[in-house]
């Protein structure tokens, strides 16, 4: 099979006259592969695997009705969706108390949960147990000096 320069196909012609158009497809395939490699989604920062949890150790007579796990669970439920990653959750019985200042002795049914975030202000949430139910306040900014 003979062609003029204007009608010459891009590719190879087999002895049987079949035209294999490889050059255009190879080039197109290369462009698609490069574009796909460049179009990877942007990786977001790695989330914090699991936040540190600190539970105040205290003994009450009779046994405290507010426990660390349910208190933190109730506090976490009050956070807005899409909040910053949590670095640390701290549970303590009673309210916040300034260092070196006498505090009211906790009763075992009230406490505070302090939530520290990565890149966002720390909040405090007050929790109270009533029977087996635990209620939590709205998160408030953690006051300085505590």
Characterize the structure shown.
With 146 residues, this protein is of the alpha+beta class. The chain has 2 domains: 40 residues, no CATH class; 90 residues, no CATH class. Helix content is 17%, strand content 26%. It has 2 helices and 8 strands. The strands form 2 sheets. Strands 3, 4, 5, 6, 7 and 8 form a 6-stranded mixed sheet that branches. The radius of gyration is 33 Å and the shape is globular. About 19% of the residues have low confidence.
Average residue pLDDT: 75
User: Main beta sheet: strand number and arrangement?
Assistant: 6 strands, mixed
- Got a strand count? 8
Structural class: alpha+beta
Q: Please report the number of helical segments.
A: 2
Strand content: 25-35%
Order of helices and strands: EEHEHEEEEE
* End-to-end CA span: 91 Å
* Total tally of structural domains: 2
Shape: globular
Low-confidence blocks of residues: 19-46
Percentage of residues in helical conformation: 10-25%
Write down the Rg.
33 Å
How would you summarize the topology of this molecule?
Elements lengths: L11 E2 L5 E2 L2 H16 L13 E4 L12 H9 L9 E8 L16 E8 L5 E8 L2 E4 L3 E2 L5
